[in-house]
Amino acid sequence: MKITTHVLLTAGILLTSIGLAGCQMGNSSQSSQSSAPAAASAKSSSEPAKLAEYNGIIKTARSLNQDGQYKASNKALNQIDITDLSEKTYATIKTEYFDLQKSNDQFLLKKNAASSSSAAAKSNNGSSKQATAPAPATNNSFSGYGKYTGHYFFYNTNDDRIQSGLNISSDGSVIQNNSDGTTFSGTAYIQPSSQGGILSYDVSSDSDDTKTITANVAIVVTWSNGEKETYYGYTGYDGSTVLTDGQSYDGNLVNEVWQKF
Fold this sequence. Notes:
41% of the residues lie in helices and 24% in strands. It has three helices and twelve strands; from the N terminus they run H-H-H-E-E-E-E-E-E-E-E-E-E-E-E. The strands form three sheets. It has an eight-stranded antiparallel barrel with strand order 1-2-3-4-7-8-9-12. Strands 5-6 form a two-stranded antiparallel sheet. A two-stranded antiparallel ribbon has the order 10-11.
């Protein structure tokens, strides 16, 4: 009789232990399952706030554009994280962003050309000020290279560079927007190239990993101050159109790499 009581007591303890372990496992499972929706909810709740912020920036940039303050308008647009614009949530923002930027750039290009012409005229009349050469005449070299026209963003993992956006139009006119509100204008000429061993970033990695590429085209930009700069165009691993100047920067980085949307 004592042996039977001992056996029953032991079985009871085992059943109780199993029950408690089951409860703990159930609670742990429920906790892990609920954490994922919570994270997704936090992300989705932040999107309306950012969308509202971006709409406010667009409104400010549009107002500045209408007032003729094109540099200030571009500076306002630079507050938008351009990488967000690839998401469907910001499709309307993306359209307005580039429409405004294009409008600003067109007016700035005209103003720069007019200013350069005025400076040249003053120089010819005996002024001691050095004239800034106007951008060269536009061309139709991009007629068979539409892939390389459009809007690019500066691919760089450091915050110490001022480059922000680059726009190449089908007539060869080029505008570079900078994060400090300044812009550079010029004209580009494109030609085929098969030069290899050119330094660039692996833009598909979202890092500063470098690689060497073989170019498909060479784009020579003559800036309004007369300086020339060559970009080599190719297709990245992710299928995007990429430009690089192939020059090293700060030891192990690349000077200028631009990725098209």
